[in-house]
Amino acid sequence: MPTPRTTAAAAAARIVRDEGVDHAFGCPDAPGAPLYAAFAAAGLGRLTARHPQSAVHMADGWARASGRTGVVVAGAASGPGLVPGLHTAQADGVPLVCLAAGPGAAGPARPVTKQVLPAASAARLPWALREAFRTAREGRPGPVLVELSPGTAEAELAYASAADAPLPVRSGAPRPNQVTETVSTRRPVLVSVLAAPEV
Asked: Three-state DSSP class for 103?
């Protein structure tokens, strides 16, 4: 039996819903429009912002309030506008997945994200999105950017949703004897940082 074909945007919407997210925030331009339309068709709530920075902050607030991963859909020219919101999410340990439709967002966003995952083709998007959700939640939570090449969202791929599932997230909890091992070392080192108030 042949694997059913669908658009990359429809597969992305199914994955986002499967990861427990029911709202997406964005400021989509023409390249991001297919993702936003697919999210609407999948029954995901969409909240549109006037500026990409606002969309990231909205997703950040939703993630904090709901305890789930926030999702942002941004257009090609949104790269620099995403940076303040992504920086806040990284500093505060908030899990976010940002889908940037079109090139140009990876450069400015790379220093303020846990990882930038390119999705150069429709076939690569499902893996990149699953990996983004795992990376955003694993260890210390934080933002992850998935950069879609032009035309990726509209392209078709063979996608079997029954064979696709969320990736396992490794726990960041210490081993039971890890604290004891650290304390019982001959010369433990304690590193402390004190920030001086600005005058």
From this structure: coil
**pLDDT grade for 138, boundaries at 50, 70 and 90:** very high
Q: Which CATH superfamily is domain 5-183 in?
A: Thiamin diphosphate (ThDP)-binding fold, Pyr/PP domains (3.40.50.970)
What pTM, to 2 d.p., does this model score? Answer: 0.84
Residue spans of the domains in the chain: they are 5-183
DSSP 157-190: EE--GGG--PPP----PPPTTHHHHHHTSSS---
DSSP bridge pairs for 48: 26
Q: Strand (E) positions, 37-182?
A: 45-48, 70-74, 96-101, 115-119, 143-148, 156-158
Residue 54 to residue 178: CA distance in whole angstroms? 41
Strands (E), 102-160: 115-119, 143-148, 156-158
